[in-house]
Write a structure and sequence with these properties.
Elements (H helix, E strand, L loop, with lengths): L7 H17 L10 H20 L4 H27 L5 H26 L1
Helix pairs in contact: 1-2, 1-4, 2-3, 3-4
Length: about 120
């Protein structure tokens, strides 16, 4: 690997962040510093930690940052469930975002397994 930008998981997580930002634009303005901010921060944390981990000199450190990304992904998943429950996302929006979330999760887990070899 030359750098994080070569990783499919990083590319997919960047696309996911863009989708998250687009979907949260319609959230109530009073939530800008509430759930909207939390969701966006969790989403941004995913590719950010992948990039930081890839820049480390040791495979073990990289795996640790991938696990942090996985934690942010789970945090985001919970936040998306909450926003569906409080009707900020409709079922179709939730399903689309959840599918993308699962794609990133599978790629992260796959990369972690690869690094464990």
């Amino acid at each position: 690997m030359n750098n994080h930008k070569d990783l499919e998981v990083w590319k997919q997580s960047i696309e996911f962040v863009k989708d998250i930002y687009e979907r949260t634009k319609s959230f109530p303005k009073e939530e800008l510093f509430g759930i909207t901010n939390q969701i966006r921060r969790s989403a941004v944390s995913i590719p950010s930690n992948i990039a930081e981990g890839a820049a480390r000199n040791h495979k073990g450190e990289f795996k640790q940052f991938l696990y942090i990304s996985l934690g942010s992904l789970s945090e985001l998943e919970t936040q998306l469930i909450i926003t569906r429950e409080i009707k900020y996302l409709d079922d179709n929006q939730f399903v689309l975002l959840n599918e993308k979330l699962e794609t990133v999760r599978k790629l992260l887990i796959g990369l972690i397994k690869f690094l464990k070899k």
